[in-house]
Structures are given as structure tokens and as C-alpha cells.
UniProtKB/TrEMBL annotation:
Keyword Ribonucleoprotein assigned: no
Keywords noted in UniProt: Glycosyltransferase, Hydrolase, Transferase
Record protein name field: Trehalose 6-phosphate synthase/phosphatase
Lipid metabolism recorded as keyword: no
Domain of life: Bacteria
Species of the source: Hymenobacter caeli
Family of the protein in this entry: In the C-terminal section; belongs to the trehalose phosphatase family.
The EC number(s) this enzyme carries: 2.4.1.15, 3.1.3.12
GO MF entries: alpha,alpha-trehalose-phosphate synthase (UDP-forming) activity; trehalose-phosphatase activity
Length: 472
């Protein structure tokens, strides 16, 4: 019976070396949840990096065996590979380019060479598991070359690819010295999925401009095969967030926070540390709100969670410093003896505390400069069963295509953002409920499970079509 193999840079379990030995930490991430029922089925597997550097061969066997019992197969990477393939080409070349920050992009041949080599390493790991008729679903920008590498070795496999970040305009992509290789890499797939039609259009335009291939109605004709391209906006596990927000644990945490904050109103911001998230602009807008509407001084606080990420990449370290300084400056400027404008946390929160933060917040500020989708926006909506709360959402997050009942803003427009904050704080309760109801119905229906199912169905269909269209 044909198997399904999921491939992503990181495995859904993180292995860590502690003083008590190795620990295996399952990921709470949406992707792991959405694909759980697929990769855990008999014979199926998830291939990816377990997140630690090996010390010896015995450790390798031990980890591989432990992960195998939970349907996972590790690809071990060296420190040099992580530096050049992950921090280098993936996060210093592709990430800034695909998020419209070309000024941060580096173009290092050594990073490219490592990216090719690590994609080949992933290919070998998949080939060790994949039969000739299996289905392989590859995820994200770290593995753009993998579909074509797999296709060469397993021409009969059904191969899908999903990009979790934006696909940029052709004008951005064409700057990359390796643009053609990257596009050819993707075209090894039968189906290529994006979060939005906009990203999909950019990809089709890049393929026709840079490779000169005909593209029509989401179909790309390569000399040997037809590749289907489509939009699949990713969702969340709605019930999990709704239930977490209603849980006793979340309510208890909320009471504790409430006691600490008094009667103050809360605006919430949660992100990974990343220059794409617009964190500095958000802080400036909050400062403008307090300057322009002094009635909010002493009344509204920004609760800002920044989750550490990629701190070995220079721009991330610089951004951390910029945020620290801005928070310091604004708190010094506006604080009173018994009130703090900004509560800033540089760490992650466990799920029940996160649920409490969503409960507590009257306004969520989700204002990235660019974001493939942004699931925080959907998590906030799912957590607001009582119909109270306002989502302020960047028009440049993929989620804005679906959540149009949010206050949709341009994140570069600090004035506009400050005004949206004011508007959110004075929005009548019935308007809040109306907007949230519409968004909640959508987030509930188009969840991560329907997303995975839709992609897998379309992948099977694209393979069927491949057979019908294949030249004799
Ligand atoms: O948004 C793209 C993404 O790769 C997510 O899949 C992931 O959760 C996030 O960026 C952080 O990725 P990492 O810590 O692996 O660099």
C-alpha cells in the first residue's frame, strides 16, 4: 500500500540535550497538529531535523530509534550546515527576499552550495523510506530544491509542495542569482500550494518570465509534465484554541494577570522576533496613541510577547536591541507610578497562559510588514467566544484575505495604526460581536484539518491529471 511521507526542515518533535539526558519535546505548532493524523498512520512518516547536533554515533541510533516509534525519521545536520543552509541561505537570502526585505539579503555562493547539499541530504533520507508509488509532501522555503531532486530518483511518486511564507513579486525574485534553479526545483512537484492567490500569481508570473514556460489557469506545462498550482489558506485547530480559552487553567491565569494589571485595558501583541513582523512600527503607533489621546494614558497597556528566534542571524540581534530601546524609551516617557504602558516579555508562553492572554486582551495587534499567513490572528479570533475583542490586522498578512472583518491597516502607516487603535478601543460592543462572529465562523470552518485534507485531495487529483495528460 502506498505511503505518505511529510518532509519539513524541522520535525514536529524537538530533541534537546539536558543535564538529565535527552528530552523529546513535541511541537505545539499548527502544522504538527494538522498533519498528525497523516504522518502517524501505519507506514507513513515525517522526515526532518530534530533540532540538535549529534555528539556520537550511539546518540544517532538512539534518537533515530526513539523517533521511529512515533513515525519520524531524523535528518541530522552539522553546525556548519545549520550556519550556511539554515541561518545562511534559508534565513539570510530566501527569507528577506521573499518577505520584501532585499536590503537584508546576502548572496553567498558558499551558502547556496550548502543549501544544495542539505536539500540532497534530505532527498537521501526520503529515498530511504519512499517506494516508487508513494506520496511525498514537502514543506517550505528551506527545501525548494527537494521536489525536483526526488522526481529524478522516483519519477512515479506523487509529490506535493506547500510554501508557508509569501511568494514575492517576480521583480524581487529575479534579484536572486539562483532564481532559475529554485523554480526548477519546485517544478518537480505535481502540486504547488500557496496561502493566497496573490502568492500563486507571483509564482506563475516568475515561471513564465524567468523560465519561459506556458502557464494557464493554474497549470504549468513543462516539457515533460504538467504542474498544478493552487491556493490553500492554512487554518488552525479551532477547537483546541476555543477550548483552551474556556478552560479553568486559562481562567485562573487570567484572574492572576487581572489582579496585577488592575482595571487597565489590554492590547496584545504576540510574535516571533522577526523584522517582518512590524514590531517596532507597532510600538511607535502605541506611543502615538498615548501622545494623541492622553485619555488612554493610565488606562490602556500594551502587552507584548516576543518569542526569541534565529538569534544567530545578525538582523535579528539588531532588531532585539531596537525593540529593547523603544520599549525603554516609551515606558520612561509615559509611565506613571502605578501604571506601565508596555509589558514586554522576551520569551515564549505555555499554551494555557497564552490562552489567558487572549482572554484578557480587548485588542490584538497583528501588524506584520509581510507574513505568509499569520496564525496568531486566527488564534485570537478562536479564543474570543464571548464576542468581545477587536483584531487589528495588517493588509500584508495572508490572513487579511480571509479576515476582512478585522480593522485592516497598512502597517507602514504609523498614524493610521494609532487611529485604528483608538477606533478599536471605542468600538461599540455590538460591532465587535458582529465582526468577531463572522471571522470565528470562517476560522472554525477552514481549519488546519480541512486545509490538510484539501491539499491531499488536490494532490491525488493532480496525479490523476498527470496520467491523463502524460505524453505517450
Ligand atoms: O513561517 C515560516 C516558519 O518556517 C514556520 O514554519 C516556523 O514556525 C517559523 O518560520 C520559525 O521557523 P524556524 O524557527 O524553524 O526558523
Amino acid at each position: 500500500m502506498p505511503k505518505t511521507i511529510i518532509v519539513s526542515n524541522r520535525l514536529p518533535t524537538k530533541v534537546q540535550r539536558t543535564e538529565n539526558g535527552l528530552t523529546f519535546q513535541p511541537s505545539e505548532g499548527g502544522l504538527a497538529t494538522g498533519l498528525g493524523s497523516i504522518y502517524r498512520q501505519d507506514g507513513n512518516a515525517w522526515v526532518g531535523w530534530p533540532g540538535l547536533f549529534l555528539e556520537d554515533a550511539a546518540e544517532e541510533d538512539f534518537i533515530a530509534e526513539a523517533l521511529r516509534t512515533d513515525s519520524m525519521a531524523p535528518v541530522f545536520l552539522t553546525e556548519a550546515e545549520i550556519q550556511e543552509y539554515y541561518e545562511g541561505f534559508s534565513n539570510s537570502t530566501l527569507w528577506p527576499t521573499f518577505h520584501y526585505f532585499p536590503q537584508f539579503a546576502t548572496y553567498e555562493p558558499a551558502h547556496w552550495a550548502a543549501y544544495v547539499a542539505v536539500n540532497e541530504k534530505f532527498c537521501r533520507a526520503v529515498l530511504a523510506l519512499a517506494g516508487p508509488e508513494d506520496t511525498i509532501w514537502v514543506h517550505d522555503y528551506q527545501l525548494l530544491l527537494l521536489p525536483a531532486l526526488l522526481r529524478r530518483e522516483r519519477p512515479g511518486c506523487t509529490i506535493g509542495f506547500f510554501l508557508h511564507i509569501p511568494f514575492p513579486s517576480y521583480e524581487l525574485l529575479r534579484v536572486l542569482p539562483w532564481r532559475a534553479e529554485l523554480l526548477h526545483g519546485l517544478l518537480g512537484a505535481d502540486l504547488i500550494g500557496f496561502h493566497t492567490f496573490g502568492y500563486m500569481r507571483h509564482f506563475l508570473s516568475a515561471v513564465s518570465h524567468l523560465l519561459g514556460l506556458p502557464t494557464q489557469n493554474g497549470l504549468i506545462e513543462t516539457p515533460t509534465r504538467t504542474v498544478l498550482v493552487d491556493a490553500f489558506p492554512m487554518g488552525i485547530d479551532y477547537e483546541r484554541y476555543a477550548e483552551a480559552a474556556a478552560s479553568d487553567a486559562a481562567r485562573a491565569h487570567e484572574r492572576t494577570y487581572r489582579q496585577a494589571l488592575g482595571t487597565g485595558r489590554v492590547v496584545l501583541s504576540i510574535d516571533r522576533l522577526d523584522y517582518t513582523k512590524g514590531i517596532a512600527q507597532r510600538l511607535l503607533a502605541f506611543g502615538q496613541l498615548l501622545g494623541r489621546y492622553p485619555e488612554w494614558v493610565g488606562q490602556v497597556s500594551l502587552l507584548m510577547v516576543v518569542v526569541p528566534s534565529r538569534d544567530q542571524v545578525p538582523q535579528y540581534a539588531a532588531l532585539k536591541q531596537e525593540i529593547d530601546e523603544l520599549v525603554g524609551r516609551l515606558n520612561a516617557q509615559y509611565r506613571t507610578i502605578d501604571w506601565n504602558p508596555i509589558h514586554y516579555f522576551y520569551r515564549s508562553f505555555p499554551p494555557d497562559e497564552l490562552a489567558a492572554l487572549y482572554r484578557l486582551a480587548e485588542v490584538a495587534l497583528v501588524t506584520p510588514m509581510r507574513d505568509g499567513m499569520n496564525l496568531v490572528a486566527k488564534e485570537f479570533v478562536a479564543s474570543k467566544a464571548d464576542g468581545r475583542g477587536v483584531l487589528i490586522l495588517s493588509e500584508r498578512a495572508g490572513a487579511a484575505r480571509e479576515l476582512s472583518d478585522a480593522l485592516v491597516i497598512n502597517p507602514t502607516d504609523i498614524n493610521g495604526l494609532a487611529e485604528a487603535l483608538h477606533q478599536a478601543l471605542v468600538m461599540p460592543a455590538d460591532e465587535q460581536a458582529q465582526r468577531l462572529d463572522t471571522m470565528r465562523a470562517l476560522v472554525k470552518r477552514y481549519n488546519v484539518f480541512s486545509w490538510a485534507k484539501l491539499f491531499m485531495n488536490q494532490l491525488a487529483y493532480s496525479k490523476m491529471k498527470q496520467h491523463t495528460l502524460a505524453p505517450d
